[in-house]
Amino acid sequence: xxxxxxxxxxxxxxxxxxxxxxxxxxxxxxxxxxxxxxxxxxxxxxxxxxxxxxxxxxxxxxxxxxxxxxxxxxxxxxxxxxxxxxxxxxxxxxxxxxxxxxxxxxxxxxxxxxxxxxxxxxxxxxxxxxxxxxxxxxxxxxxxxxxxxxxx
Length: 152
Description:
Non-ribosomal Peptide Synthetase Peptidyl Carrier Protein, Chain A, 2 domains, two-stranded antiparallel ribbon, MSC/AndL, membrane, transmembrane, ion channel
């Protein structure tokens, strides 16, 4: 009984290892780490550069601008800072995806093959579609130009 449980646990960890080592999971993990680092950069840009510049008009750090309505504090500055963070992240993500799509589409266009050679042609007499190798039209039996007569 205990031996079956150990085998079951080993199998579970082997399945987990196979799942974790798949390319998609590793790519996603790298994306999350890079994304969180990028978020820290954007937060610093907004909090340390943009908010103080906007705050020049309020004589205060913009993220600390509060509107009081009775006993309620509306943190307008903090909310607008979050919107600015979002817009910067969305814009940079747009630029990255646009660059990626441009590279991907360029490679896709390069990989496309030249158009295939035609396999049919049109009979100049009856306008029916026939094989490109035909010497006579199977519809009107006209001898097609450019081919010698075949004698069997």
